[in-house]
Amino acid sequence: RFLWDLWNHIPMVNTNQTLGIHALNTLALCYLPGVIAGWLQIYRGTKYSRFPAWLDNWLKMRKQLGLLMLFAASIHACLSVAYMSPTYHGLVYGDPVEASAYVMEGEGWGPKTESLNRTTIKVFGTEKMKWRGECFLMTGVFGFALVVILGITSLPSVTATLSWKEFAFIQSGLGWTALIFLCAHNMFLGWPYINAPSCGIPSSYQYALYVPFLTILMKLPMVVPPLSNHLANIRTGYVRNVIKHEETV
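The chain above was modelled as a monomer; its predicted structure follows.
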């Protein structure tokens, strides 16, 4: 019975949490190399210089990372539905009604006997879920739906039917929206525990957000003028240092 209360949840609960963290971070890793490439283009002032080999390989494996993320997110969604109950996700359910009653007691396969003392039990289902529970579910559902759309549009047969603008809008616009939704999904569930360390390390709800938040923070300046306009000009062929180069020649 050594620490059985900690080990007995590994098959489903801990595995499901790990899959959720893996899916969120893998989605962020799909967009982080593009952000790094954008900052590198801004620094160099041109899109014609080659990226470092590690970044070039990272950019080329984004589709594989996306498929791995979709696989983990799908299992996470199925497992979450499988054990959705007040004992696991009390947040999703409303405040319980407490009742006092005699309960049946007994261990193993033997007969049960009525308890000598009354026990307080919680009855769920009389109240609607809390606002955090609604936000937790809706952000998770919408985020997963957007991730599925990303996976479908990455298929070659579907990609061939889309224009470049349509493909860019889905993979960039909807992809970043999915990342924000899934970060919110994690925060709505784990906010009360986000600063509660476990075994001397940050909680899973906290370290799951390190890479996604870094990716979002690096992306934000690139979507705000004038930096966004400058990057758009570079990606259409503008070279910032061409005038200085001609003067020196």
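Residues 98 and 120 are 6 Å apart (CA to CA).
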